Amino acid sequence: VARHFENGWKHEHKKVPNIKRIFAVCLPDHLNETYEEYNDRLERQNGWRGANEQLVFHGTERICSLGEKDEHVTLCQRTTCRLCCILQTSFLVSKAGSAGRSFKRFGPGIYTSSVSSKADDYAIPPWLSDDKAMIVAKVSLGKISIHYKTTQHLTGPPLGYDSVLGDAGVDLNYDEQVLYKNEAVRPAYVVIYQRPLAIGAPTFTMPRSAAQTTLSNTAATLTAAATAAMATATMNSSASNDCTIM
């Protein structure tokens, strides 16, 4: 997951940030089952193309301290914390644009990208926090309709297709995938990373011994923190559907 995040960082004006923690998301059975059923349906429908499953990135707003420390693994219940809402209910097409972003390039849908540095633009941390959070989602794209120009009138993929890919070259600098069905996408991981710096910005270099200690401590606690996060995500999955999601 860390390598996928780093390889997906394409913006030249932003330094690849330091990853602090990675949490696995454990969803309740009914969300896993509907995703797998959708996968199976695409495989039967599309033949050799199959479900076309990929890991992609989604940035959204976090207003709590989830993931900032090893012990901060409990999802908050605030309906305005879009990160925790997604982890509780998974993604909901019905919430498209409810975060205040009225512009939807390919109509109302769930937007992701293979470019982590693009998703970073939408990953909004709490006030004064140095840590940002990004969802790594698994998506079943199926048969993709490729678009190079904005097509806002879409309410779903064109006939015969399962998803839309906005590809770079005309209206877009970096790609984005659009899913129009809730069951086509599920949160899989959460990456907690240091707020990225602009290229050329001054940096503080940690002494070698201190850096080694920090990395060692992080590695020692990562497994326990991820396990706790998985349990918490399952326990809190029945939260209110009144969440606002990007």
Word description of this protein:
- InterPro entries: Poly(ADP-ribose)pol_cat_dom.
- One of its GO terms (molecular function) is NAD+ poly-ADP-ribosyltransferase activity.
- It holds the Pfam family PARP.
- It comes from Tulasnella calospora MUT 4182.
- Residues 86-167 form the PARP catalytic domain.
- The protein has 246 residues and is an alpha+beta fold.
- It has a single domain (2-103, 117-140, 183-235), classed as Phosphoenolpyruvate Carboxykinase, domain 3, CATH 3.90.228.
- It is built from 5 helices and 8 strands.
- The chain has a 4-stranded antiparallel sheet with strand order 1-8-4-2. Strands 3-7-6-5 form a 4-stranded mixed sheet, with no helix packed on it.
- Mean pLDDT is 82; it is low at 202-246.
The count of DSSP E runs of length 2 or more, i.e. the number of strands, is 8
- Low-confidence parts lasting 5 or more residues at pLDDT below 50? 202-246
Order of helices and strands: HEHEHEHEEEEEH
What average pLDDT do the residues reach?
82
What is the C-alpha radius of gyration, as a whole number of Å?
18 Å
* CATH class label: Alpha Beta
Number of domains: 1
CATH T-level fold name: Phosphoenolpyruvate Carboxykinase, domain 3
Q: Please tell me what the overall shape is.
A: globular
Shape-level CATH architecture: Alpha-Beta Complex
